[in-house]
Amino acid sequence: MSELTKLTLAEARDKLRSKEVSATELTQAFIDAIDASNAEINAYVLTTPELALQQAKESDKRLQSGSTRPLEGLPLGNKDLYCTEGVRTTACSKILGDFTPTYESTVGANLWNAGAVMLGKLNCDEFAMGSSNETSAFGPVVSPWRRKKDGKLTTDKLVPGGSSGGSSAAVSADLCLAATATDTGGSIRQPAALTGTVGIKPTYGRCSRWGIVAFASSLDQAGPIAKTVRDAAIMLRAMASHDKKDSTSVDTPVPDYEASLTQGLKGLRVGVPKEYRVEGMSKEIDKLWQEGIAWLKAAGATIHDISLPHTKYALPAYYIVAPAEASSNLARYDGVRYGLRVPGKDLIDTYENTRASGFGKEVRRRILIGTYVLSAGYYDAYYLKAQKVRTLIKRDFDDAWKSVDVVLTPTTPSPAFGFGEKTGDPIAMYLEDIFTVTVNMAGLPGISVPAGLSSEGTPLGLQLIGKPFDEATLFRAAQAIEDAAGRFVVPDRWWEGAGKPEAKRKTGSKSK
Amino acid sequence: MRVDETTVRRIARLARIKISDAEAKGLEGELSGILNWVEQLDAVDTASVEPMTRVVPIELTKRADVVNDGEIADEVIKNAPMVEDHYFVVPKVVE
Questions:
Q1: From the CA of A384, how many Å to the nearest CA of chain B?
Q2: Residues 6 or more apart whose Cβ sits within 8 Å of residue A474
C-alpha cells in the first residue's frame, strides 16, 4: 500500500507544492487504497475515480503554472448528506433512491473551488440519525480500530461512531486525507472521538447549510473530520463562508485558523463544568479529563471550576426539538418529486406506502415522535417547553463566558462499542450524545481531539467548547492537547490487501 | 405519557407512514419510553423563560423582491419517479 495515503493533509499540501508528488499520483494512491479496502470498511457508498482524476489533472496544471489554490490537489471524501451535482446523493436512505442533484452544496462548491479532489460519497446513518452508522441503508461502517482483550487484538467489529461514521472511518483508515461531515447532536465529534481523529462542529451559521440534506435545521452544521488539528483548521477555513442562499449563515470574516495554532495558551481561561461528571462515567474517561486539564495548565492556561446547571436537560430537550424539526423536514419525501415511489390505491396510500418502505426504523421512529410532539394539544407541553429549556442552556454558557474562554469536557461517555451492542435500546444509543448535544442546543463551536486510548486500546477524545465564532481559540487549545497527547493511528492495518477487491465485494452493497 | 395503540395509529396517519399491526404494538412501548424519558423536563421551571427561536442573534436578511430563478423545468422534474411533459404524475385525486 502506498505510503502517500498516510500523509496528513498539511504534509500532502507541502509535497504537492514542492512538486515531490503530483496530484494525479496522490489521487491514484487513494483510488487504489479505496479499491483494496472499501469492501472491508464500507466507508464509501459511491466512488468517483474518473471525476477525481479529472480534478487532479486540473490541479497538476495549476501547480505547474503557479496558480495554486488553498486545497490544490488534495483528495477528500464527501459525506453522502452533501448534494453533489451529477453524482448520486442519498443521505444513506432508500427513500432518495438514485437521486442525482442538479446542484452542488455551497460547502462542497467551496472545497472544489479551493482545488480539492472528490474521491466519492461517504456512508453515514440514514438522514444522519444515529450514533453508530448502523442505520445506513448501505449497511454499517466498520471501524479500522479493533479492541484488545487480554492483551490481544480481537476481530470484533467496532462502530466508527455516527452519524458521520463513513467520514471518521475513511480518515482513520487513510482512505482520504480529510472528509466533510455534519453535526446535529454530536455527529462530527463523537465519530472523531471513537476513531482517533479530529472533528470540529463550527458555530451555527459559520458554514452554509444550503445543499446539505436537512435533518434538524436549527441544529445542523457542516464541519470537517481530519487527521490532525492543523488539517481540521485548513479544512474549516475552506468550508466556511457567508451564503446568501442560507439565511442563517452569518456574514462575518473567516479567520486564518492555521495561523492561530502557534499562538500558545498563555492566559487562556479553561472552564471545567462539574455537571459533566455524570453518574456511571468510567474511570478512564475521568482520568483522561484530568490529564487534559494538566496538559492545558502546563501549556500556560488557567483552570476554573464552572457550573452549567441545565446540562442534564439538554439531551431530553434535544430529543424533542430534533425529531420535531426532522418530521417537518422529511415531509418532503412523498414519492412525487424525487426518489422512491411505492404506488398505492390513491394518493394518500401512495404517500404512506412510499414512506413506510423508504424510511428505515430509526427514521420512522423519530418522525413519529416529532409528529406527536407537534400535534394539536401537545405543542406547548413538548416543543415550546424544550425551546424554553434551550434558552436556559444557552444562558448557562453566556454566564460561563464571563469567566472562561473555553470549556473542557470528555467527548463521549465511553469508548467505541461493537456492532449491535446498543441497537436494541434507543435511549442507550441517544446517551452517546450526552456531552456533545448541549453545544448544538446553544449553537456553539465544539471540537473533539484525540487524547488517549481506553483499556481496550481504542481511542478516546476530549471536547473543547468555545464562544460563538471563536473557532480560532478552539484550534489553539486543541493543538496544545495534540502536542501533549500525540497522534493516534491504527496499529494494525488489517483492512489492507486482504485479497482482491472483486472477491471481497459484498452483495447488497451499492458501493462501486 | 403512555401512548396507546390508537394514538400510535393516529400519529402514523398524520405522518403518512403506513404501519403494520405488529409495528403498532412495538411502537406503543418505544414511543412511550422516549416520551417518559423526556418528561424529566417538567422539573425545570420555565414560567418566565422565552422560547429560543434562533441561536445566533442576527437580523433575517431579505433579498430584493425580483425573479432570480426559473426556466429550469427540466432540472426540477429530472429526479421525479413519474412525469408527463413538465408535470409530476400522481394517482387521480379528484373524481
A1: 6
A2: A200, A406, A445, A446, A447, A464, A465, A466
A373 contact partners, CB below 8 Å, separation of at least 6: A320, A323, A324, A379, A382, A383, A386
Chain A residue nearest residue B17, CA to CA: A352
DSSP-assigned states of every residue in A255-301: --HHHHTTS--TT-EEEEEGGGS-TT--HHHHHHHHHHHHHHHHTT-
Interface test with B, best of A242, A371, A467 (most B CBs within 10 A): A371
Specify the CATH class of B5-43 in words.
mainly alpha
Cα A182 to Cα A10: distance, rounded to the nearest angstrom: 22
**DSSP notation for A475-501:** HHHHHHHHHHH-----S--TTTTSS-H
Please state the domain extents for chain B: 5-43
The CATH code for residues A3-263+492-504 is: 3.90.1300.10
Do the Cβ atoms of A387 and B81 come within 8 Å?
no
* pLDDT, position A498: 62
* Cβ–Cβ pairs < 8 A, chains A and B: 158
Domain boundaries, chain A: 3-263+492-504
Distance CA A339, CA A354 (A): 10
Taking the C-alpha atoms of residue A280 and residue A278, their distance in angstroms, rounded to an integer, is: 6
CA distance A218 to A440: 9
Note the ipTM here: 0.96
Distance between B7 CA and the closest CA of chain A, angstroms: 9
Tell me if B81 and A340 make a contact (CB, 8 A cut-off). yes
pTM: 0.96
Q: How many CB atoms lie within 10 A of CB A434?
A: 22
Interval A101-135: pLDDT, tens: 999 999 999 999 999 999 999 999 999 999 999 99
What is residue A145's predicted lDDT score, i.e. its pLDDT? Answer: 98
**Those residues with Cβ within 8 angstroms of residue A467's Cβ, 6 or more apart along the chain or in another chain:** A401, A405, A444, A445, A473
Highest-confidence segment of A197-201, B28-32, B49-53: A197-201
